[in-house]
């Protein structure tokens, strides 16, 4: 993997991806942030050596480098998921590349279902902690200790200072920002009524199919990390209706301007 990381990072550096400070991963239906960036360079995933390729139709599949709120950023427009058939090492490879390019902070967004029924679709949730229900770890491979501490501490995986700044920004802009626990499952099927009840019992406020692997690797690399979920549906097991993916995408688009405000104003402060 070290060889692949060096090869990929060198390719991107040659393309002009020069010392970004902040990495951003954009989740399902959350691509509008790109419109706020002064794009200097962009490369499709399928042109980057050793990179996976996004297979989900509403994920764009580009790595973008540019200026946002006065900082150099590298942005994943489209991410990878376990349900696409990738390994956890594939999914988190871009995080290792962004760190190799120079980032010190990683900001992550995702679309999630609200388990906590006090949270409503179209609102945002700041992730304070998570539950890994994906069945393995992106650090579970031979030679991981060459890239960082094998037994990575996860007592505080989300940076407290960044989270406090997010909350301050949300309050100043009158943005409803919950704080809670995100559970990450494999998917791609949605949960049953019994599974939603289980998730609530074990302490989850929201559920999705991403994010946790990238957070684990970011902590492995000692990056400062924070994540925001856009709540796209309400997972009430007693009143569960068939899922509508178009409705989920529409809810994400409705909430996205608030997420963009949070990210832009935070980056100005970093």
From TrEMBL:
In terms of SUPFAM superfamilies, this protein maps to: Purine and uridine phosphorylases
Question: What are the protein's UniProt keywords?
Answer: Glycosyltransferase, Transferase
The Enzyme Commission number assigned here is: 2.4.2.1
**Pathway noted in the entry:** Purine metabolism; purine nucleoside salvage
According to the UniProt entry, its GO molecular function terms are: purine-nucleoside phosphorylase activity
**One Gene Ontology CC term in the entry:** cytoplasm
- Boundaries of each Nucleoside phosphorylase domain copy? 21-268
Highest taxon of source: Bacteria
For biological process, the GO terms are:
nucleoside metabolic process
> If you read the UniProt record, what top EC class would you report for this enzyme, in one word?
transferase
**Which NCBIfam families does the record cross-reference, listed alphabetically?**
PNPH, PNPH-PUNA-XAPA, PRK08202.1
Give the protein's biological function: The purine nucleoside phosphorylases catalyze the phosphorolytic breakdown of the N-glycosidic bond in the beta-(deoxy)ribonucleoside molecules, with the formation of the corresponding free purine bases and pentose-1-phosphate.
Name the family the entry cites.
Answer: Belongs to the PNP/MTAP phosphorylase family.
Q: What is this protein called?
A: Purine nucleoside phosphorylase
């Amino acid at each position: 993997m070290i060889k692949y990381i060096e090869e990929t990072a060198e390719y991107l550096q040659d393309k002009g991806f020069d010392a970004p400070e902040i990495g951003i991963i954009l989740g399902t239906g959350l691509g509008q942030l790109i419109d706020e960036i002064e794009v200097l360079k962009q490369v499709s995933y399928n042109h980057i050596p050793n990179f996976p390729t996004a297979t989900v139709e509403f994920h764009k599949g580009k790595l973008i480098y540019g200026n946002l709120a006065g900082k150099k950023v590298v942005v994943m427009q489209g991410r990878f998921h376990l349900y696409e058939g990738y390994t956890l090492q594939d999914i988190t490879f871009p995080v290792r590349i962004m760190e190799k390019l120079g980032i010190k902070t990683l900001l992550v967004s995702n679309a999630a279902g609200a388990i906590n029924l006090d949270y409503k679709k179209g609102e945002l949730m700041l992730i304070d902690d998570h539950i890994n229900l994906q069945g393995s770890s992106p650090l579970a491979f031979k030679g991981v200790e060459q890239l960082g501490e094998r037994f990575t501490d996860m007592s505080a995986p989300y940076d407290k200072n960044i989270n406090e700044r997010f909350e301050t920004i949300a309050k100043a802009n009158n943005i409803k920002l919950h704080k809670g626990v995100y559970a990450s499952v494999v998917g791609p099927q949605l949960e049953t009524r019994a599974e939603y009840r289980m998730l609530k019992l074990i302490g989850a406020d929201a559920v999705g199919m991403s994010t946790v692997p990238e957070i684990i690797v970011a902590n492995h690399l000692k990056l400062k990390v924070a994540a925001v979920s856009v709540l796209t549906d309400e997972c009430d097991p007693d009143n569960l209706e068939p899922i509508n993916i178009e409705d989920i995408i529409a809810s994400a688009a409705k909430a996205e301007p608030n997420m963009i405000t949070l990210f832009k104003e935070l980056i100005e402060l970093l």
